[in-house]
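Exercise 7. Predict the structure of Response regulator from Paenibacillus xanthanilyticus.
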Amino acid sequence: MKTILIVDDETRQVKALSAILRRLRPAYRILEAADAKAAWSLLESEAVDAVLTDIRMPEEDGLTLVERIAGGKPHIKTVLISGYGQFDYARKAIEHRVVDYLVKPIGLSDIERVLAKLEVLFSEEREREQLNKERIWQDVLFGDASGSTAERAERCASPGGPGVVIVFELGRGDPIGLITELKRKWRTESASAGQSEIVTDPTGRRAAAIMRLTPALAAKPSESVAKLSRLLDHVRSDGGEHIAVGVSRTRADVHASVAEAYAEALLALRHRFYAPEQTVFWGTDSQPFAERISPSAKEIAEPLLTAIKAVEGGRALDLVNAFFCQRESPPYPKPGLMKDETWMLIWQLLNGMESLLSDDAPEWSIARLRERFQGYDDYRELRLRFKELVRHLLALTEKTQQDKNGLIIMRCQHYLQQHYMEDLSLESVAAKFHFNASYFSYLFKLRTGMNFSEYVLDLRIRQAKRMLAQTDAKVAEISERSGFRTPAYFNKMFKREIGLSPKTYRQMHGEEAAE
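Solution. The predicted structure, encoded as tokens:
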């Protein structure tokens, strides 16, 4: 509710203007004063948002009153009323940030114009105040905590009292849009439970609400929990189902202990890692996380690696269960610690089985696996994917033991598919895979049905066919990119294998022919 003070020594003018304002804005509170002295007395005792004052008044005129307001109460908006239609006062009025003029006789449209202008300014001021409050709370919660938290919280307009801190964690989607909608919903829904400020954390994926409960709610903990539960259900409805929530215990003075309450709400919310089906986590139900894991990755790694290499699936999965089973009930390990220990175990397994894993295979990329496992925000998903990885390693070990040479030839084929354009020889590739050349040649033909040179030539011809059909590169360039020594040799081998020259093949199969 806004309060407007009318100041004029003409009683009829004051009453008429007051009546019009009350009719146009029934929610506004209208105060009246007959002179500047009475007006200032009201300004000292009442919360006034705007003053409409006549310029010509006995003793102290309106300009003097405006000057006093600009110096002592600059947040109050001022409008001058003149009966003369003269603007000799304009320059001085501008110095004191007068919003507008009303010239007697005052018409209804003039009043509506001034009210609209004032309301724009009120709205802008409200937005600035909200932004300033949010910055202060962001500083308190996430900034460099110099000075006491209580002193910094006192800079906010609302007084302290019993309350909670609530942390909202967004799901996937546009964070700006989600945060904006969350704030709108929360401010609408929470008004019945008390006064609240809601701010965004630096990640942009969380928001924290500092909620000062009404005295009635604060006095009845069970009712406050029920009320907050209903509020959170409303906030999470209609598109907000992805939001998870952590709620601190009720604090006697939530502003004075806001940093501790925020940490407690965040701690509660982090338990979502172990209970992803739950949506609201209460500080009263949460325990601190364990600082260490037992058995650790270091203790499990060696026996697990031994079991995998021996293809002892039952023993391997028993060890996996032993590693994870201690995390099934509180106190849980910190989610980050759990993921770090799991990754350490994976890294030790991969390191111990390096000779069996293809360097070029994406599925065994250290960077990709680390990103994948660090990205799991669900303990059960982490456990499931780790078991899948162990089963995969068991199957790979078993297959390797059954056909070790076959695996090596498969790795060789993968290597040739990646390096066909290079100068390849039987001897160099055999050496790379730790074979002597003659045995490698025998083994390669046994496994692929082609001798080494035929296999490489087939790879190169297939790549050349693709480039001839799909690109406009010159034949000489395609020859080089396909791994042939010279264009002449390329032409000869291509015609021998395909029955057409490269040029004729392009004419028949290229994009131009298709058109």
